[in-house]
Amino acid sequence: MRTLVTGGAGFLGSTLVDRLLAEGHEVDVLDDLSTGSLANLAEARSDRSHRLTFQQLDVRGAQLVDLVARRAPEVVYHLAGRIDVPASVARPAFDAEVNVIGTLNVVEAARVAGVRKVVAALSGGTMYGEVAPRQLPVKESQALAPCSPHGVSSRVALDYLGVYRRLHGLE
Known about the structure:
The chain is α/β, with parallel strands linked by helices. Helices cover 46% and strands 14% of the residues.
């Protein structure tokens, strides 16, 4: 299966890339290398038997749609995003650009390319806000009440994913 992983040079992304390759999938990695590193992909890139490509690309960029359409993955794993809550408080617009606009670009690229499924990793804990210890573990039915810009951007990204499922059938 042809897959595409955004944020694939990060810790989680590169681990997913290794797993997909071990299962025999073809993997396209997109990462702007702002927090990820090619060193995380060194072993995967050195094995010539793997079907792996790497593109240094920011998910906020307009060229994302063309690249996804050209590569035509069946599944997109969206792991690119900002995860630093204090940084989101200091720079909320930047957090929103990467996490909201970036996610919107990814799902729009997936829609245009005819991708059947997008799997997104979002910061779930930040969407629930302050939770009393007696409410742990948090259930998905818990009301969302983000208390940081990062939590808000994760919630909005989740809302966009839901809208694309309803409007366009994107799983």
